Amino acid sequence: MLLVIDVGNTNIMLGVYSSEKLEMCWRISTNRNQTEDEYGIIIRSLFQQSGLNAECIDGMIISSVVPPLRFPLVKMAEKYFKVTPLIVGPGIKTGLNILYDNPREIGADRVVNAVGGLDLYGGPLIIVDFGTATTFCALSETGDYLGGSIAPGIAISTEALFEKAAKLPRVEVVKPNKIIGKDTITSIQIGIYYGFVGQVDGIVKRMIREFPVKPFVVATGGLAGLIAKESETIDEVNPFLTLAGLRVIYNKNVSLEKSTLS
User: Fold this and answer.
1) Active site residue 109
2) How far is CA 135 from the centre of its chain?
C-alpha cells in the first residue's frame, strides 16, 4: 500500500492507496514544532483506529509547502514505516510541461493538483484550491501548465478582518439564506461568503476568456464544497484531488525506476 502526504500551511492531508483505490484519508493540523516521533505516533495511531496495518505500507510520497517539516517527515517515514519517501520537488518526474517563466517558483501543491487534475479530467482545465491561499491553475487542452493566480485564503482573510476591526465578532463561515443582513453576524457571514464566491467566479470567468475552448473547472480544498454551492463556474468538487496527484506522481517515478533498472 502507498501512503501519500500533502503538507499545507494549515493542515496535513494523508491518504492510503491500495492500487488506485483510496482506502482511507485523514486531515491533521500542521505543526512546525513536532518531531519525527510525534508525527510517527500520530500517523500510526490513525492507522490503528482505522483498522489498517501500517506494516503493509511499502511506498510513501510527500508534498510540502512547509520546508521545516521535510526532514522530520522523512525521518518519520524511515523510522516508523521503514521506507524512504519520494519528495515532490526538483528532479522528480511529473510529466507536466510547465510554461512558467521560472518553473521552480510553483508550489508543490499546485504541481500535484495539476497532475491529479489532468489524470482525472484531462485538459483544458482550471483547478481552484481553497487552502491557506486560494490558488487558480490553468491547464491547456494538451496538458501544459499555463499558469494561474494566487489570492488570500478564506481563513486568513477573515482572521485579518477580526483582528483589525476590534468590534467585529468572529463568525462561522456558512452560506447565508439572504443577501441583506439584519444583524452584525449575518452581515459578516454574507460579506465573507458571497465575497469569496464573487472572487472565485470573477477570476475563473476571466481565465476562461483566455482559453480557445471552455475548460472544465474543478475545486478542491477544505471549503470547496461550501463555495461551490453558489458558484456559477465550478463544475465539480473533488476533495481528494491532491492525494490522487501524489499517487500518479509516485507511480510515474516507480515505473521509471523499474524500467531503468531493467
Assistant:
1) yes
2) 9
